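Posting this for the archive.
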Amino acid sequence: MTLKSTLESSDNIKYELYLTGLTEDTVRKISADQKEPEWMLHHRLKCLEIFHNTKLPAWWPDLSGLNFDEIVYYATPHKDHTWYANTRDEVPEEIKKKFEKLGIPQAEREYLAGAGGQYDSSNVYHRIKQQRADKWIVFEDMSAALHKYADIVKKHFMRLVPATDHKFAALHGAVRSGGTFIFVPKWVKLTDPLQAYFRMNTLGGGQFEHTLIIIEDDGEGSYIEWCSAPKYEKSSIHAGLVEVYVGKNAKMKYSSVENRSTNTYNLNTKRALVEEHGYMERVNGNLGSRTTMLYPCSILKGDYSKTDMLWIAVAGEGQNQDTGSKVIHIGKHTSSNIIAKSISKSWGINTYRWIVKIGKWADNAVNHTQCDALLFDNISVSNTIPHIQSDNDSAIIAHEASAWKIDESELFYLMSRWLDKDKATTMIVNGFFSAVVKKLPLEYAGELNKLVELEMEGSIG
């Protein structure tokens, strides 16, 4: 389906092309519009077939509000817009204003190694600082990388998360558009973070960005992504996919803050493969969405590889945050550390699932998992569902969990120091989340604290 200038958007963006209906015709049009190679079209069509033949697991949250025939799977701008920009001055004014509100320009000038932005199906801006590019670091949108770095992309694309993994991995493979490609060559250290901002903007829209990160041996990388979407009455879907390859002696820090609106089904998949002496750190914040299903995974393939997975989630009225972490220990002397913090309020549901698997040959593997839940009332829900499997007697596995309510005496004490109830509540919550938030760069920790403060307004009383 091709329509001009009629698709509803919160930022007054006019669209030249948008595609609804999950059909072979839709998939072919997406591929043709991006001028993709033949192998990618074949991959898309195979994923579409898998999607139609795959059922949802019985344990998943209720997804009955999703109508796959009405979702906008692909939206590109009207020709009057200068849509892809190599400098910020070329970005359309209405999008530039959105960047300004988010503080991206200042962060890019002062802190970031590079920044990118995506609206709906299209990347609108991508730039890496020259001194990083001179070291052969690549920071591209995925559509461009598919042509510029075809061999690398083809070798790694959906190898960690195949379409057969689950129904929404197959959906992603069929209608994927946009995303980020990062490549850090051997021995190169990228300590300043790259950032990408994903905005899902259309009524009943879907966003299916693909992020592919490759850190070669002895390299180091850092990446932050922010996600948001406006509130509509009609359901939207986000089914992105992130694949991270961490080489020998390499390090990768991946941070993500997702604050999509409460009409959005956030069905994201993230997975990393870590080689010998490699290290993968994840910091995740989930504050929005109607239903979230997100279970990032680290596969500790190499000996002495390590992962830290840090997580916060807030579930309020009408929200079901079904999240978790997966770690698969394969190599010897591997270690993993999981810290998860959740808040449930106003009928909100938080479910934290984690899977820890210790392989037969993973001698001396160590895992520690800590899950803490804070409930604001007697009507909200917090669930913790562990799955631990060890096939090696030398493994050390530790798990601790807690659930509690805000202490009225703490509130009274803070309010006696001239704080109102919302401010006092926010201070307690920020302390609860501090073990995770402090892992973010200072600028982004401040922004996340602001989002948490907005979530806490009127939560008690």
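The longest strand covers residues 306-315. The two ends are 50 Å apart (CA to CA).
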